[in-house]
Automatic annotation (TrEMBL):
It holds the Pfam family Beta_helix. InterPro entries: Beta_helix, Para_beta_helix_rpt-2, PbH1, Pectin_lyas_fold, Pectin_lyase_fold/virulence. NCBIfam families: para_beta_helix. This is Right handed beta helix domain-containing protein. SUPFAM superfamilies: Pectin lyase-like. Residues 182-350 form the Right handed beta helix domain.
């Protein structure tokens, strides 16, 4: 074989390999690059640009340009979709017009529990006091988002595998038609009362949750979550962080400043009280029903509350229905290294040692009475 023929074959081989690699690179790039929406920008958008819903249906990733976009219905995301803005404060999706309320919808929503791999980031989602929620998430990471003006909530978590990071949740819950006021973040596991509370295990970390008309975070019958390193301030309602019939949570490293008012948990009257009156709390744990009366295992047990700064009328309040049954109170919880300075009444525990055969809560190194390592008041 001549030298020229060998050289020709080698060039052809390398060219073929290069073309294949280029095609693979293009396919790989297409998978990770985002479709930019709208095509011609927010000011000069034309008919050729698809709707945002069509864009997210057609592309795995959509990047929304800066601008305010009025949506007349919810934007639904399915598995393995990414929706991100160019700027959290300058890319705004806003509910508007004849909005289709059903009490469950969000401006951005994931509507099935089998959804996974969704990412939403770098946007403002404005429910505009029209949509029930700003965001409804399952199987999703929400990062660097501003969620505001939901009629009922800023972010609702009715399913598994939700993560909320580095976001601002504000001014939600003012016009909720059901059980007002609504919360900044609400996690709910009561869709089927015949089942044990679901272990949705949401993670709520490094957020600013402020100026909402109900609790900052309201957890209703959901287990195994994390509330960590959030700043939770100036929310109304009965608590900065509220756990009802919820177990195995870690609540740690949060700064909570809840106004010390006469707001209390009106929807669970057995949990409306305390040794110093029916008032608000920075961190609030409630258990009031026997499993034979409601959902199985509606208990508030084995939660860890540590290294928080919590100020309100009550810094930390554990309360239940022990007047009816001695064990219908939060039990087996660990409360340690918390600072409740600035609270009217530091810490209160509705389960006295010996009240039942087991279940005492463990309090360690909290400044419940103004100095370090002082215990709660038992009532």
């Amino acid at each position: 074989m001549s030298f020229l023929l060998v050289a020709f074959l080698l060039v052809a081989l390398f060219t073929s390999v290069s073309v294949v690699k280029q095609k693979q690179d293009l396919r790989s790039r297409a998978q990770v690059e985002c479709f930019v929406w709208p095509i011609f920008g927010p000011v000069s958008q034309r008919a050729e640009s698809p709707s945002l819903q069509d864009a997210v249906n057609s592309h795995n990733c959509v990047r929304v340009r800066k601008g305010t976009y009025n949506l007349t219905g919810p934007l639904t995301l399915w598995s393995n979709k990414t929706l991100k803005g160019e700027s959290r404060d300058e890319t705004i999706l806003k509910a508007s017009g004849a909005w289709p309320n059903n009490g469950l919808e969000g401006v951005v929503q994931m509507i099935r529990n089998d959804v996974s791999g969704v990412n939403v980031s770098n946007l403002t989602i404005d429910a505009n006091q029209i949509s029930t929620h700003a965001i409804v998430i399952r199987g999703a990471v929400v990062d660097s988002v501003r969620a505001k003006n939901g009629k009922c909530t800023g972010i609702t978590i009715p399913g598994p595998a939700a993560i909320v990071n580095n976001s601002i949740i504000e001014r939600n819950g003012n016009t909720c038609p059901v059980a007002p006021p609504g919360a900044g973040i609400y996690a709910d596991g009561t869709d089927d009362k015949s089942k044990v509370p679901p272990q949705y295990a949401p993670r709520i970390t490094n957020n600013t949750i402020r100026d909402n008309y109900g609790p900052g975070i309201d957890i209703n019958t959901v287990w195994n979550g994390v509330i960590q390193d959030n700043t939770i301030t100036n929310n109304k309602g009965w608590a900065g962080v509220s756990l009802y019939s919820s177990s195995y949570w870690n609540i740690s490293g949060n700064i909570i400043n809840q106004p010390a008012t006469s707001d209390y948990q009106k929807y669970h009257p057995r949990c409306a009280g305390g040794p110093n009156g029916a008032k608000s709390a920075g961190i609030f744990l409630c258990e009031d029903y026997d499993q034979n009366e409601g959902q199985p295992n509606t208990v508030t047990i084995y939660n860890t509350i540590e290294n928080n700064r919590s100020a309100s009328w009550y810094g930390i309040l554990l309360i239940g229905n022990d007047e009816q049954t001695p064990y219908l109170v939060p039990r087996f919880n660990t409360i340690k290294n918390n600072n409740v300075f600035g609270s009217t009444h530091g810490c209160a525990d509705d389960f006295k040692v010996g009240q039942w055969m087991d279940g005492a809560n463990t309090w360690t190194n909290n400044n419940c009475s103004g100095t370090s390592n002082t215990p709660p008041s038992y009532y």
